[in-house]
Design brief:
The protein has two helices and 31 strands. The chain has 412 residues and is mostly beta strands. The protein is globular, with a radius of gyration of 21 Å.
Length: 412
């Protein structure tokens, strides 16, 4: 029986078309040329949790500070590094803009809990509040919106919205009974992937990809699948990989099905490695299988007996190692062979692969660095007993950032 728990919105991708150039275009092409910023859930649009930076951290705490100044009850889901001094911490129904140098929170904002945050170029960011897309910048989050006066109302033209700290757009299909699983910002329009759960009376699950202009209500195009689909990764060949029951669909940036590959089983999780291969986990009647396909849809290899409780899409290193993190262990594979495994004690364990053969695992109050053979290079155990819940993030200098629901820590 299918048991995968879809995590908060995952997946984003670059938008390449003649009408809308994607944010960060040119920084995510090729094997090791992706943006080193952790600019969306699971590091990049391929969802492989790989950051092409050298890990220099040695397990020593540089600093830790409390960021949750509004006592928000949620756990930290993702930390996004904008530059050396600024970042965003996504805690589900709220997020926090933090200053690393001053070690404080400069702004906190509400967001829709069934969505995720995506960084743009520079200090731009995209988030969703009240199920509407908000386009903003780090410094605009700090601004206090002035109270509207009668004079302001008189100056405002009929139908014109007052200026705010962000620009918002309507997002088709996104609402209380849905989940955002893909977001591709372009210059004039955006692409969204929405998993929709139907109505209370008619609970039919469907997955919808659509492209919608920022200033309009109607989608330019829409591709609807009457089936469950996990968060689709997006490859450098400008295609979404949509894994659903018994099939994998390759969909282009105009919503067209380019190819359909038969692959029996219920969808569990999917990512695209730095090598361009597709890593799909599916649950069959008898087992749970990891299948690996090339960009033409030809199967390279598969291995059965993997965990069906994968808590993040397959983590793939630039050396071809595949890390599958379940609720009991992190198992490591290469070309249909299980190499080794690490036991985990937290159901919120998360991992990120670095460019020099290391993988960093957050497991409750522990942060562990392993080499490609599974040997521990170092272990950090938090002296305050804080339980970290966000995947580790590696900055451009090779240091590590992780967060609990209340505190952010930097490991050097």
């Amino acid at each position: 029986m299918y048991r995968f728990i879809i995590l908060c919105g995952i997946a984003l991708f670059l938008f390449v078309s003649c009408q809308a150039e994607p944010e960060n275009q040119g920084k995510h092409e090729g094997k090791n040329t992706m943006d080193s910023r952790y600019y969306q859930p699971f590091a990049n649009e391929r969802l492989n949790s790989f950051q092409p930076v050298e890990l220099t951290a040695k397990g020593v705490k540089a600093w830790k500070f409390a960021f949750n100044d509004i006592e928000h009850p949620g756990e930290a889901m993702f930390v996004h590094i904008m530059d050396e001094s600024r970042g965003i911490i996504d805690c589900g129904s709220a997020f926090f803009a933090v200053d690393f140098n001053k070690k404080n929170t400069v702004a906190s904002m509400d967001k829709s809990s069934n969505t995720f945050i995506r960084l743009g170029d520079g200090l731009k960011l995209f988030y969703f509040d009240a199920f509407r897309l908000q386009r903003s910048e780090f410094y605009k989050l700090l601004e206090v919106e002035p109270e509207e006066t009668e004079e302001d109302e008189e100056k405002q033209q009929p139908g014109e919205m007052p200026e705010t700290k962000s620009k918002d757009s309507y997002v088709p299909w996104l609402g209380q009974r849905s989940e955002l699983t893909a977001f591709v910002p372009g210059e004039k329009q955006f692409i969204c992937g929405v998993l929709h759960f139907g109505t209370p009376e008619q609970q039919n699950v469907s997955f919808i990809l659509h492209a919608t202009p920022y200033e309009e209500f109607d989608a330019k195009w829409e591709r609807k699948f009457q089936a469950l689909a996990v968060a689709p990764p997006y490859g450098k060949d400008n295609r979404f990989v949509v894994l659903m029951t018994d099939e994998i669909h390759f969909v282009d940036m105009e919503g067209r099905d380019l190819q359909t590959v038969k692959s029996p089983g219920e969808p569990v999780s999917c990512s695209i490695g730095p090598d361009g291969l597709i890593y799909a986990v599916q649950e069959t009647d008898d087992d749970v299988v990891l299948r690996v396909f090339d960009s033409f849809g030809d199967k390279r290899w598969e291995i059965s007996g993997v965990s069906d409780m994968i808590v993040q899409p397959p983590v793939v290193s630039d050396a071809g190692l595949v890390y599958l993190i379940g609720e009991e262990d992190m198992a490591v594979y290469r070309k249909a062979e299980r190499l080794w495994a690490m036991a985990v004690g937290s159901d919120m364990a998360r991992a990120t692969a670095a460019a020099n053969g290391h993988v960093v695992v957050v497991d409750g109050s522990r942060i562990v660095c392993l080499d490609d053979e599974g040997a521990e290079e170092w272990v950090y155990i938090d002296e305050d007993g804080d339980e970290f819940t966000s995947p580790p993030v590696i900055d451009a200098k090779g240091c590590i950032f992780v967060a609990s629901g209340e505190k952010l820590i930097k490991i050097q």
